[in-house]
Prior knowledge:
Blueprint: H1 6-19, H2 23-40, H3 47-56, H4 69-80, H5 84-92, H6 111-123, H7 128-137, E1 140-141, E2 144-145, H8 148-159, H9 165-183, H10 194-207
Antiparallel strand pairs: 1-2
Helix pairs in contact: 1-3, 2-3, 2-7, 4-5, 7-9, 8-9
Amino acid sequence: MNIPTFSYAQQLLAEAEVLNPGPWVAHSIYVAKAAEIIAAHHPRLDPETASILGTLHDIGRRFGVTDMRHILDGYHFMREQGFPAVAQICLTHSFPVLKRESAAGKWDCTEKELQFVEQFLARVELDEYDYLIQLCDALALPSGFTLIEKRLVDVTLRHGFNEYSLQRWQAFLGLKMWFEKEIGQSIYQLLPGIVESILNFQSEKTMLIPAVHRPNV
């Protein structure tokens, strides 16, 4: 697999943070760490490769504040850099269901670009690294590792439901079960801070309750 070195991936992320600072950078760092940890316990995956792919999965955000456009920007940027395997990850990480309409976000793209995404998804062959980064994208918030269910709620609160939402949730949970079978243990046993994530989720749910209905505590 032709991928950049770890140091170059870190350099690209640092450059992107200057161009478009935001919580997406911390999210990318946690995705990379989750991928590295899981790959270290997997019989066929390389931890450094997994970390590099996780680091760069959202690199398209270097071009500014966008929605689904970031996957195309990342794809084309990494192709221009000479790393087609990373380019594929940039696009596939948003699609545990390989349908353009399943995206949890707004398509801020041209019609020609949408056609490209549809054609790409129709012919792409995913490998275990594609699946790993999809899973780790659902295990990482900017604040740290999290339960998949918490991440799915976070995305849904920001982007809403569509006809593929339930199928996406099932796909993410299926990936978790599949990787746990491969590594022989719960993923949550490997990632630090999960208990804290559960406790924080209770606090965050309270903040979603309209003030008029909150108990005075």
